């Protein structure tokens, strides 16, 4: 490996470059926009240039930061780090011109930066327009550096104070194209890295081996990036697997334990009782390959993804009533557990552990997930012993979670058992869906509030089982492993658990749980409104609208808020206006791409939801 190549742009008197040139294993290329004659006239510049050249550094003049590719031959274009301190168009240029300068600069950097390189941009206090600026300028009066960089495929990964006094010999110069210093008090150094490229997922079908038959079905487009990710497999270091294994280990100390997750099919026939059809991803297996009911409740579910070009079955977010022969992607593991009990395959007194991804259509909120990993533990006990069993089960889960949380953050979370009867109708999507699946005795919650968003991480049930003996009662606990991972690792956005950016899993080596440090700070958001007339006499399926927005944006929509519900006098026609907010948690999302998503969304809702745009 050769020396690290460092490119410095817009050097005024070259004092910053001179301070870096002594670093070991570093090759410095220092540049400025002016000619050599103009640059040498600045105070101390000639001395710094001599020092750079004596140390073996390159000094290049008349370099345009927006056309870097033109200044370096192909073999010398890849830089590990690029510095641009206090960029400015010169004279009294306003914020718009300086944004344009930064936009050209970042696009140019994308052509000469190494894959894992960094771009460092120092700005005066307030210019960046991020929460790190104190005080923070109004957005329209800032340089909007994160949004500008996102347009070229960069994310802001770190922000640090720019401490000019710690840089030996450094003297800031070039204010308004003069030999004057910028105000560096409160200045910030913004460190950008390359974002993962936007992912284009082609339509796919999934094959599931069920007994002696293979069932092939098309994956709903909104779930293409979530099927068969293998987060719970043996070789995975993903936090959801670590938490599942830790919980299983803790439970095994209190109960005999059997893991039966490998026998669970991805599909479920019909509709789980009580569940609203609009919350289900309906699937139509390939003709002639739909298994019978009995075969659906057993067999191994080995998912194999393959390319498949055809009609998107329910991928548009429409929630039509299912035909009797239709299947759905499993929304819960509970029906599978009930099917196994009905066949008599459960051993009373042994804790059965089922785990795997489940899929549910839901509204877009910070803690509502169309796919998450469920851990279901089921135990058949003698009638009358269910209360003590629930107590042991919950205490064991609390002990494991407290131990994990203290190991990660040094504090204990408040995990409590709350009576289901004490909850009103305002539930998180996870809790509300679980209530649809059947009667709940207790909610497993985090925190002290009645039901803040995301506080419910599990449910406890106790009900008569499908056994020949009526003396047995089934106690079950369903846990949302994704919500638990967010709680333990300080992850604020559920989408980060599904990121394709390798920087996420690198923070959890060999399954070690740690506090997550985001690699995309202050991601820009883009707000668009859309209004439309509803078809006469028809209700509007809001879940279908949210699901369609997920698909069109590739999960880049973080919020959909109803802004107006208007009924036209005389005709009675209804119009709805929604505010849609686009924002990524892990990759660069520029304003142009967000605008294209909005246009695509408008087309799709008109085509698939039968509305008329206003």
From TrEMBL:
GO BP term, pick one: rRNA base methylation
UniProtKB keywords: Aminoacyl-tRNA synthetase, ATP-binding, Ligase, Mitochondrion, Nucleotide-binding, Protein biosynthesis, Transit peptide
Indicate where this protein resides in the cell: Mitochondrion matrix
What SUPFAM superfamilies does the record point to? Anticodon-binding domain of PheRS (SSF54991), S-adenosyl-L-methionine-dependent methyltransferases (SSF53335)
- The EC number(s) given in the record are 6.1.1.20
Q: What is a single cellular component term in the Gene Ontology annotation?
A: mitochondrial matrix
Indicate the family of this protein.
Belongs to the class-II aminoacyl-tRNA synthetase family.
- Can you say what this protein is called? phenylalanine--tRNA ligase
Name the species this protein comes from: Emberiza fucata
The gene name reads Fdxacb1
């Amino acid at each position: 490996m050769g020396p690290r190549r460092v490119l410095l742009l817009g050097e005024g008197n070259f004092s910053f470059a001179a301070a870096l040139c002594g670093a070991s294993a570093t090759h410095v290329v220092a540049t400025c926009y002016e000619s050599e004659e103009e640059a040498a006239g600045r105070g101390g510049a000639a001395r710094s240039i001599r020092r750079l050249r004596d140390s073996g550094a390159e000094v290049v003049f008349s370099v345009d930061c927006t056309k870097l590719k033109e200044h370096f031959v192909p073999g010398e274009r890849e830089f590990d780090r690029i510095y641009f301190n206090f960029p400015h168009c010169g004279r009294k240029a306003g914020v718009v011109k300086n944004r344009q300068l930064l936009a050209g600069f970042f696009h140019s950097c994308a052509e000469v930066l190494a894959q894992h390189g960094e771009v460092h941009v120092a700005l005066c206090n307030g210019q960046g327009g991020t929460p790190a600026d104190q005080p923070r300028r109004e957005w329209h009066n800032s340089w909007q550096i994160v949004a500008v960089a996102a347009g070229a495929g960069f994310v802001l990964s770190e922000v640090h104070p720019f401490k000019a006094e710690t840089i030996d010999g450094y003297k800031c110069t070039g204010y308004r194209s003069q030999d004057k210093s910028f105000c560096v008090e409160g200045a910030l150094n913004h460190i950008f890295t390359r974002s993962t490229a936007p992912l284009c997922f082609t339509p796919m079908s999934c094959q599931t081996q069920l007994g002696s038959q293979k069932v092939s079905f098309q994956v709903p487009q909104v779930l293409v990036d979530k099927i068969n990710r293998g987060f719970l497999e043996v070789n995975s270091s993903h936090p959801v697997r670590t938490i599942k294994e830790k919980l299983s280990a803790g439970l095994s100390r209190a109960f005999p334990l059997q893991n039966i997750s490998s026998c669970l099919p991805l599909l479920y026939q019909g509709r789980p009782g009580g569940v609203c059809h609009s919350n289900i991803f309906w699937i139509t297996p390939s003709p002639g390959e739909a298994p019978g009911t009995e075969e659906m409740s057993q067999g191994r579910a080995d998912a194999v993804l393959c390319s498949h070009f055809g009609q998107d079955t329910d991928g548009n977010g429409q929630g039509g009533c299912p035909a009797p022969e239709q299947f759905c992607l499993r929304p819960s593991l509970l029906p599978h557990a009930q099917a196994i009990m009905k066949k008599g395959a459960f051993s009373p007194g042994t804790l059965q552990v089922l785990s795997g991804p489940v899929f549910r259509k839901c509204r877009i909120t910070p803690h509502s997930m169309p796919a998450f990993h469920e851990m279901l533990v089921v135990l058949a006990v003698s009638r009358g012993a269910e209360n003590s069993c629930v107590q042991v089960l919950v205490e064991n889960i609390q002990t494991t979670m407290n131990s994990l949380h203290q190991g990660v953050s040094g504090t204990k979370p408040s995990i409590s058992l709350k009576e289901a009867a004490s909850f009103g109708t305002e539930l998180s999507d996870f809790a509300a869906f679980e209530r649809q699946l059947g009667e709940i005795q207790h909610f497993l919650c985090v925190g002290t509030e009645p039901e803040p968003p995301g506080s419910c991480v599990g449910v406890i049930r106790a009900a008569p089982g499908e056994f020949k003996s009526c003396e047995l009662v089934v106690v079950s606990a369903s846990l949302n492993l994704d919500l638990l991972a967010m709680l333990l690792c300080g992850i604020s956005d559920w989408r980060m658990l599904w990121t394709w950016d390798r920087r996420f899993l690198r923070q959890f080596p060999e399954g070690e749980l740690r506090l997550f440090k985001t690699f995309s700070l202050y991601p820009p958001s883009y707000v668009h409104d859309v209004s439309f007339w509803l078809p006469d006499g028809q209700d509007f399926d809001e879940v279908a609208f949210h699901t369609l927005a997920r698909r069109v944006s590739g999960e880049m929509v973080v919020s959909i808020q109803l802004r107006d519900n208007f009924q036209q006098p005389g005709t009675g026609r209804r119009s709805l206006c929604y505010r849609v907010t686009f924002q990524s948690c892990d990759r660069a999302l520029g304003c142009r791409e967000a605008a294209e998503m909005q246009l695509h969304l408008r087309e799709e809702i008109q085509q698939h939801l039968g509305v008329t745009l206003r």
